[in-house]
Amino acid sequence: MSGELLERLTEGGTLNWGMENGGDDWMQASVYRPPQVSPDGRWIALSQTGLDLILVDVATHMQTKLPRPGAPIVAWSPDSCHFAYAPEPFDGAELYLYDIRSDRTERVVTIEEDGSGMGIKEVVWSPDGRYIAFACCFVSAHSEHRGDLVGEIRRFEVATRRTDVVGEIRTSVASSPRLCWTADGQLIATTSPAPGAHCSYAPLRSPAAISPDGLRVSDLVPISSDRWEGSGPSRLTVGEMTTGRVLWQRELAISATTVAWSPDGQYLLLDDNSDRSPIWRIKADGTADLEQVVEEGFLLQVFLQWSSSESLED
User: Helix, strand, or coil here: 21?
Assistant: First the structure.
């Protein structure tokens, strides 16, 4: 987190979600159609409408629009050479696989019977890249509809194109679990992923965040209880994950609602709910003052910078 380069990747508004139109469309898009960066930082996949899909090359700034149908969320492979995505289920549920090296899209799973209309959800690659897990085939968990559903967890093997049912997932209005590969290689559905688990996508902006090593947790709250969240100065607390012991606490002069850790665990990034406001950082050990790193922006994700010395060679 020592870089100082702020780089514009497009000139045509692809990453702007129509912010110039006013309103809060940009906020909805940032949560439900966020740009998703590949693990190596080289590529960005994003959707303008939720029905299209665009790939941006960070190295060349070239944009590739994939053939329809697209999707708002993709699941990147660990080697950043593929991503999987599930379009809106207009005519049954489908899972697609895109190969960056060959620029080829392949439909790898088709589920014709989708009574709930939910399609395929919670797509996630295994850490070794052998499997893609997803949830599908949801039905009511009770004879009368109570708002809770039960679905199948399926595992797709990339090499053989074989799909197996390996478990079930339950979801409701009050609870929406994610699919996660645990550190020992197990595939589970959970609302509380353990540190180090590799999980399906969830919105990243939050007033609390766990450090990359799973040992520390950071938390933001308004200093004054009379103010609603995001309208006044904030208090930042960093503590031990297992014991809850407070390591340090700082009252900030800024209003912050989102905190994120740098990949090396050395810094915390802070932002508010405005699309054009400063983004700040502070050392994770609390030993330095708050500093502004972006004048006008909206914090989506923190990731390692792509290195031009790397290549996509086999």
Answer: helix
